[in-house]
Amino acid sequence: MELAPGLGLCRRIVDLVGTGATLRANGLGRGRAYRRHLRPARGQPHRAQDPGRRAPGLDRALRRGSEWHASWIARAPASTPPSTPCLRIAGAWRRTSTERLRRSSIQYAKAAMQRCWTTRRASTASRSTPEQIRISAADIAAHAAAAPNSVRDALVQAAERIEAFHRRLMPADLDYRDDVGVRLGARWRPLDAVGLYVPGGTAAYPSTVLMNAIPARVAGVQRVAMVVPTPDGALDPAVMAASEIAGVTEIYRVGGAQAVAALAHGTETIAPVDKIVGPGNAYVAAAKRLVFGTVGIDMIAGPSEILVVADGANEPAWIGADLLSQAEHDEDAQAILITNDSAFATQVTDAVAGHLARLPRATIAAASWRRHGAVIVVRSLDEAPALINRLAPEHLELAVDEPLPLAEAVTSAGAIFLGRHTPEAIGDYVAGPNHVLPTARSARFSSGSRRWISSSARPSSAATPRASRKSARRP
Hints:
Layout: H1 4-7, H2 21-25, H3 32-35, H4 54-63, H5 85-92, H6 98-112, H7 117-122, H8 130-133, H9 137-145, H10 149-169, E1 174-177, E2 183-190, E3 193-197, H11 206-219, E4 223-227, H12 237-246, E5 250-252, H13 257-265, E6 275-277, H14 282-291, E7 296-297, E8 305-310, H15 316-327, E9 334-339, H16 342-356, H17 362-372, E10 374-377, H18 384-391, E11 395-399, H19 403-408, E12 415-418, H20 424-429, E13 455-462, H21 465-473
Parallel strand pairs: 3-4, 3-6, 4-5, 6-7, 8-9, 8-11, 9-10, 11-12
Antiparallel strand pairs: 1-2, 2-13
Keywords: Metal-binding, Oxidoreductase, Zinc
Protein name: Histidinol dehydrogenase
InterPro entries: Ald_DH/histidinol_DH (IPR016161), Hstdl_DH (IPR012131)
């Protein structure tokens, strides 16, 4: 960490402990780094900072900066949902019986019924016996065969592109000998087992199966265990077809926090895994947070986000549709437009209203747009990168003639879509890069690259007696 400023890996160090040794070693004064970003808003008196109260100051710095003093500019990360019985199971579970999984699904779904209807729908294991929780190969094949040929062809096309991209992302092993004769290296090896959570309470997500299972297969993971809620006991043909194409090895009809607990700790039917990946609702995300440490997780996924930078040369209806492509996912999703043309901004808002009049998920999309949507008019699009980096959006569209200069100035975004003819929907389905991306401003420090998810590096060292003696003599 002390070397980071000198190597250009960061601009400043914020010391969270009392000694200040790290700051002094880098020529920084105590508190100087973060207080610079706590300037009061215009008309507000400056308040002296107490060195013993750094955490609240840092928290405020994340929510507001001197450049863009607006309460909505950096949405706070999704909060942990209230403690409910359906989450206690994830925190307290140990290896137990599949029958307990079934009983727990009934018990906790009933307890949560008055609090979260999505948890009630997701807890569909209550309709299954222990023997029925694992979906048989025959059932998978039968339901996959029911998928229309056009759907299967689209899934195959997407799978081929996803696999090709992720094969190019695979890291190479490292092996070299240093100047004193020590042989150093790192070998990338796949995890033994990965658990894949696929949402299914209100919609089917075959693309999520492809985006999570294919990178695991490319990495060489031998066991990919998928859990998916099955409302009313029905299996979605497209999801089953995607699981066949992606190489999923086993599927269980269970969802919600208890599915995460089962993957982490295991049952008689479900063997535990090494890492759990895939999105879910707030309860699934909270359960993943609780089991982290027992198993690895990919990320804590929050509501979807899209930020579109567009000038007046775009078709307003296209930009409006792109904004709603994420707003329709969740009432807490966020869609933002940045433009330098106020007339175009009005046209886009009118287009959004027109789309909402005929959108199948209009109720959800309208609530998202009303609560979290925003249109920002700037003097010049050169101002956009500073805003983008503060927001660190999950999806970023640069709908301009020359998107590369803007993209070069962006340091924080989950995925970038360049040009007027690259809508975010392409990335969600068929472009090839992964659509599982960091949300809630976590694009500042993480990425959607899945090459790290299903493999890990094993460093190695080998020294001869002579090399050991040489190393020991060096300071």
